[in-house]
Amino acid sequence: MLELWRRVRKLNQLKGYIKIARPDHWVKNAFIVPGVIIAELLTGKVLDSGVVIRFIWGFMATCFIASANYVINEWLDAKFDKYHPTKKNRPVVVSNIKFHWVMVEYALLIVLGVVCSIQVNRYFLYMELWLLLMGVLYNVRPIRTKDIPYIDVLSESLNNLIRLLIGWFIITEAYQPPSSVLVGYWMSGAFLMATKRYAEYRMIGDPEIAGKYRKSFQYYTEHSLLVSAFFYAMSATFFLGIFMLKYKIELLIAMPFVFGLFCFYLYLSFKEDSAVQKPEKLYKEKGLLVYIIILIVLIAVLMYSRIPAMDYFVETMLINV
Asked: Mind listing the UniProt keywords for this protein, alphabetically (predicted)?
């Protein structure tokens, strides 16, 4: 009986180490897909079997590197997570997680990520190492950008830009993506992060406790978080609009629906215990999923369409009346 109890305890400990790597968050790495699509559209590369194989290697590499970042995040945030209504139940907070095994797991995930990255190309590897570095800068002192208001959002959302580059370099290493779409994607991520913080701050409901959980919350208010999210949304749509004007004017037709997506996401942040706090759980928001699917279909159709009348928006000459 005692031996059985020991085995159960070891199994629970192993589950704890797997859980801090957050494999359920791997769905976020779908953010590399737009990079693949944009690269294919702009470079004319064919989506052949070689691309599929590189995508599989690339997706797994991104999952392993992201999990390495999650591991150190969970360990270093344990003393703060105890103030959060739900994160206080994380394994590092409530279980007997050992530091040396956390470091072994961290190193192993990095090795797996690098090995998978090498199968793609060297520029892809550089992006994965950049993603890994951002995890260190975000979580580890003395820098720990997570504690600095506004910088916390901008540094975490920079991972969105990196994921776009990861998708791009799966397709090609001969070209660089347009800066307008990179900044637009970065600002889109900043909007998501600011909205997530707003939902978290609102859910905690006590500025003092919120400040103990996340140091940057000592400087935020609900109003400042909402205003910053609005700024990021405007910046994102501005730069994405520039990209559309320069590279695919037909996509402008989708812009009102993109505005609607930002509004829909912001609306969700007002819900009690909003899924915005846990983006990996957004699949439970059926209305949002339907909206995203419709938007994706619309964008896909527009990307492979040619509408001469849209050239009116880029004409520089005056029109006689």
From this structure: Membrane, Transmembrane, Transmembrane helix
Tally of CB atoms within 10 A around 2: 6
Domain 22-175 sits in CATH at 1.10.357.140
| Structure tokens belonging to residue 211 | 């400040």
**What Å distances lie between residue 196 and 22, 58, 183, 192, 228, CA to CA?**
18, 27, 20, 6, 12
CA 307 to chain centre: 33
Rounded CA separation 215/38 (Å): 37
**Domain residues of the chain, as ranges?**
22-175, 178-306
> Nearest Cα to 102, choosing from 130, 80, 78, 118?
78
Its pTM stands at 0.89
- Vertex 199 angle, CA 26 and 202, to 5°: 150
